[in-house]
Amino acid sequence: MSAAEGPLVVGVDTSTQSTKALVVDVATGRVVASGQAPHTVSLGAGRESDPRQWWDALCEALRQCGDAAHEAAAVSIGGQQHGLVTLDAQGEPVRPALLWNDVRSAPQARRLTEDLGGAKFWAERTGSVPAASFTVTKWAWLAENEPEAVRATRAVRLPHDYLTERLTGEGTTDRGDASGTGWWASSTEAYDPEILAHVGLDQALLPRVVRPGEVAGTVHRHDLPFSKGTLVAPGTGDNAAAALGLGLRPGTPVLSLGTSGTVYAVSQHRPADPTGTVAGFADAHGDWLPLACTLNCTLAVDRLAALLGLDREAVEPAGGVTLLPYLDGERTPNLPHAAGLLHGLRHDTTAGQILQAAYDGAVHALLAALDLVLDADTDRSAPLLLIGGGARGTAWQQTVRRLSGRPVQVPEARELVALGAAAQAAGLLTGEDPAAVARRWDTARGPVLEPVERDGATMDRISGVLSDAAALLERGTD
Predict the structure, then answer these.
(1) How far apart are CA 404 and CA 374, in angstroms?
(2) Cis bond upstream, residue 333 (ω within 30)
(3) Rounded to an integer, what distance in angstroms lies between the CA atom of residue 475 and that of residue 478?
(4) Could you give the residue ranges of the DSSP H alpha helices within 30-156?
């Protein structure tokens, strides 16, 4: 490893599929070492993972970083949002974690909304209307279906909380990740006693919410490649971490293409959308992060490419074909029981056209929510920042450009969640706002693809098919 100019920090991204660790030079933002290890996710009715896999993956990723990790002065964890981790009296998982894309709690989401004053109550109180992704609905599902697991639970955590606690020995979370639970009120920035009482969850089981810039603890374990006393930052949810990693200023739109798709922007106004399209999340440093999320993005399109026997880039203009790639149900629009739907096949339809229609269907849902995410006075001609695993794919880039009609900027920096966590860790050492650290590192630098004429006809056609098929999609395939 070449000599670093400043102290080193570790940023971690524990995502749905793997854990990644970066060792970053605080002075320059240069990544001096990295590591990655996979997780497994169950298939079938639910989506679950054993949290102990995340810890094993973190240890392996740090091992791959070598001596650089030992030299780090601070560490922070960014993690997949919403997952329900239940721990027993010994701190061991009671059962596998219910992940964000497990939609079995859709009936509980509907009942919670109805039981506590409707969508307007939830939007005004928590900033969001419950969906099957939210942790509060998963707890309600667990209480209804596995009451013995609830009785055995002595601590409730989110994925990033679980790893942070194993580092420090202290149960902590942050406002960004807590805002995605459904039991943290954005109106008071505290856990909501009424909601907790309604779902039968004792606040004593929840982690302390650490303030932005506060130290969550120090590494207390001796089986990790960290020096004694290494500082541990609060960490945060993956989208809030990516916002830090980009150094986002209010109003800059981000479209993230991963297993899920998200569109968001930092705002200084607390969101409260009673339609439920926009989740009114907090960000990790005092502002807000209105966000819309889809369950089906790159993974769904890749699956359809495989079914068609095509490379993911082998697209052809879709013509009149419409494909709604809702393979895992969908969150935006809120259709948790939906399956994929194909409309408009003709004798001359090609596999490449069907694949392009899958891209169009995935991007349509995100762009349809974009105007709701952005503040009214935001510049609608500013470039969209395109990030995530799909951002470097030509077919994804061209689809976003064509359907949005906006310029698209693709940051050169990779692993923005881990970089955001690293910026948060760096802020503990320098006293800087983590977003300012990321701007100093110039993480958003990248080519800007010029706008092309907006394909409004395709957007309208997809909206029309979605509207006409709503009853079928709501019913699902059962």
Answers:
(1) 14
(2) yes
(3) 7
(4) 51-65, 67-71, 106-115, 118-126, 135-145, 147-152
Cα 341 from chain centre: 25
Calpha distance 278→290 (Å, rounded): 6
Burial 448-462 (b: 16+ CB within 10 A, else e): ebebeeebeebbebb
Q: Which element (helix H / strand E) includes 86? A: strand 85-87
d(CA 454, CA 476): 32
Catalytic residue status for 238: yes
Q: How many Cβ atoms from other residues are within 10 Å of residue 207's Cβ?
A: 22
* Tens-digit pLDDT profile for residues 43-82: 888 999 999 999 999 999 999 999 999 999 999 999 999 9
- Amino acid identity, position 176: G
Q: Kindly name the residue from 238, 273, 287, 360 that is annotated as catalytic.
A: 238
Rg, Å, the chain Cα set: 21
**Which candidate, 61, 58, 43, places its Cα nearest to that of 99?**
43
Amino acid identity for residue 236 in this structure: T
Residue 373: its H or E element = helix 351-373
Cα dihedral across residues 199, 189, 127, 293: positive or negative: negative
Contact 288, 282 (CB under 8 A): yes
pLDDT digit string, tens, across residues 147-186: 999 999 999 999 999 999 999 999 999 999 999 999 999 9
How far apart (Å, rounded) are the C-alpha atoms in residues 379 and 377?
A: 7
Q: Which residue is listed with tokens 């310029």?
A: 407
